[in-house]
Amino acid sequence: MAKDRLYYHDSKLCEFEADVISCEGPFEKEDGAGFWKVKLSPNAFYPESGGQPSDRGKVDDVDVIDVIEDEQGEVVVILGQEVAGKVSCLIDSARRFDLMQQHTGQHILSAAMERLFGYETIGFHLSEEYCTVDLDVDRLDESQADQAEDLANSIVFLDVPVRAEFVDDAKLASYELRKVPKVDSDIRIVSVEGFDNCPCGGTHVSRTGEIGLVKITRIDRAKGKVRIEVLCGGRALADYRRKNKQLASAATSLSIHPMELESQVGRILSQLKESKKSLQEASTRLMEYDSARIWDEAERVSGVKVIVYDAGQGGMDFAKQFALKLVSNPSTAAAIGASGPDTAYLVVARSQDLGLDASAVFKAAITSLEGKGGGNKAMAQGGGAKLGGLAAALEEAKMALLEQIG
Ligand SMILES: [Zn+2]
Fold first, then answer.
1. What is the distance in A from the centroid of ligand 1 to the CA of 49?
2. Which residues belong to CATH 3.10.310.40 in the chain?
3. Could you tell me which CATH number the domain at 96-248 has?
4. How far is the CA of 278 from the centre of ligand 1 (A)?
């Protein structure tokens, strides 16, 4: 009978002796490894159920891979080796305690949400990394989250007893329950004294003080409902430590106090925006000046000013602007190169009054950059990863232009 599971009566029992009732196998996992399905009597391993992950540990020094509930509702321990007879069982107590902190913390927070705002919990999922609670409401603002956190933590700080018991119908009727039981026999009620009664088959701490802290770390809205992420106890401490380190490191790199970070980041971002704008304006002015000078100095070949130029550091837009500025003059053909961090760019363009084919020139030159791109007779552009090939590409472009001019 389900009630025989030892964790129902003592969630801190992590060492026990058992008889192997059955050991079926070997079965084959996806990776080809064999596994055995073991039933124990008595059993204290928690199988994955009710949103809580299964226990880990050892059976006679064999690692527990998983613990599941079969179709008959019996607990099956999955092992990588066969076992028989009397066995010594050990549950990973740190993992169990962590899951108990999260699960009991969730009960208290769910009860707080319902007491304060009438928001019902409609989903709960607990994993090794996170714990989420789904609320039957379409939005939860930060101040509500704070209030629910405060109420939940006040129950933690009061350190009241948490009890679990199987109840008969008469006893069940005496409880004011937060939610309706999903089963109609062997109903187990988990009570946080004076605060919450909830049907649940999970493992829980024995006093609320063991939870340490309840912290909501994220509020998401999806499909018209609210999902919150919650961290309790050791997980909340680890998260606090990590965030503190991140804040301290960010503050150190800015040479400010961590408490000033929020205001300083806002100031730095607006400064950065201003600087970008100024830099853009200065680059445009410089490019205009450079292009005018280069055009003036360029010699004519059969009446056409042929300009082949490496414009240095810059992206495709920069090279394009440069080329367009040059060919805004009449009878001008230009091949402009520029280099980004991992790409070299080439733009070939000619004035509207010329019949040259910029696309053909570009195609002849871009192979030197091992690149790609394209365009039309008036302008073609592209880039390639061979940064060292830019000089050769420009030389190719020059030759192709001169050939077309004849
Ligand atoms: Zn529960």
1. 10
2. 296-405
3. 3.30.980.10
4. 58
Which overall architecture, per CATH, does domain 2-91 show? Beta Barrel (2.40)
Q: Does domain 296-405 have CATH number 3.10.310.40?
A: yes
CA angle 50, 54, 57 (to 5 degrees): 160
Half-sphere exposure for 204 (CA within 13 Å, toward CB) = 29
Ligand 1: centre distance to CA 161 (Å):
16
Quick: pLDDT tens for 266-298.
899 999 999 999 998 998 888 889 889 999 999
The residues of the chain that CATH labels 2.40.30.130 are 2-91
Q: Ligand 1 centre and the CA of 67: distance in Å?
A: 18
What strands lie across the sheet with 225-232, from one edge to the other? 121-126, 131-135, 225-232, 214-222
pTM: 0.76
Contact indicator for 366, 381 with CB cutoff of 8 Å: no
Q: How far is the CA of 41 from the centre of ligand 1 (A)?
A: 25
Which of 47-51, 78-82, 181-185 is most confident? 78-82
Residues lining ion ligand 1 (Cβ < 5 A) are: 200, 202
